[in-house]
Amino acid sequence: MARKRVTLADVAAAAGVSPTTASLVLTGRGRELRISDIVQERVHAVSDELGYRPNIVSIGLSKGTTKTIGFVSDTVATSQLAGDMIRGALEAAQEHGYMLFIGETEGDAASERQLIDAMLDRQVDGVILASMFTRLRPLPSTLDGTAAVMLNALPVGASAVPSVVPDEYAAGRSAVRLLLEAGHRSVHLIGAGPGEHDVPPATVAGRERLAGIRDELASAGLAPASGWLCDAWLPPNGFAAVHDLLARDPTPRALICFNDRLAFGAYQALQEAGLRVPEDVSVVSFDNATLAEWLRPGLTTFGIPHEELGRRAVEVLLGMREKAEPAEASGSPVVHRLAMPLFGRGSVAAVAR
């Protein structure tokens, strides 16, 4: 049998005071309104004895906040790679006294609408829309006038909704600089390129990484030695691309793979050809996947700062709340780009003189 919920009226009756007095005491306004210490102590004692729990939503609404944030993701919540994104958001929310309501859609638009509606019905203070892979996505119309932030995604069309994403462009430039500083002048691209439009469709990360790579090479008076566009970024695609590259150029000196899974396949193709990493071929990649450090030699890669992304999304959302700036239907979106840390391992070597 369910236990009857203790109400404020129950506490007031047991303490021998009015519901108004009990409410003032339990919301911390007793001293301000000169309610005697004896009465305050009696109300608190009765409240503890009865196990009274205040209606947080009602109290929050009276103050203009419920101290809750809706977190709507596609597959982030169950992704091993993005577990830290949830952790970062949770920790930031807790530090500010907020609770995170997490829902997952598996990419279904109808499920997304239902989740957002349910969260708005519960008067959340704002909504974070999160994606597993950095991508373009439209802002649901149900969020018009609501504080919202896009996490690991960029808006389609005009929108004032801010986004929090990894700085893929800067990481692309840094990958090239790493190789240039090691003396490499011939860099082959595995997964995209060589042209600026040679990227798989709908991949924001690929487009921005390629732009950074090409710009940094151009600043050194260079262009990609070759580019191998792959329709998927999986180990078999990396293996096939490097296999084809070796048929044309048996002695490439440096590869930039557009993610670690492509790099796993590249390692296999190089090994089968009798080439060593990094003595014969240097390899740089992106994502810092779990297996990157277990390759031999370990893969030098730029990681995605999942935890910092989640944390920043909460902080941006709460900043909007403080400034009373809900999302508008049009405007110039603010994009917060977070640096992708370098995990330098053993896959890059200086060119022998």
TrEMBL record:
PROSITE patterns referenced in this protein's UniProt entry, alphabetically: HTH_LACI_2 (PS50932)
Gene3D superfamilies in the record: 3.40.50.2300, lambda repressor-like DNA-binding domains
Domain HTH lacI-type residue range list: 6-63
Keyword vocabulary terms for this entry: DNA-binding, Repressor, Transcription, Transcription regulation
SUPFAM superfamilies hit by this protein: lambda repressor-like DNA-binding domains (SSF47413), Periplasmic binding protein-like I (SSF53822)
Highest taxon of the lineage: Bacteria
Name used for this protein in its record: LacI family DNA-binding transcriptional regulator
Organism the protein comes from: Cellulomonas alba
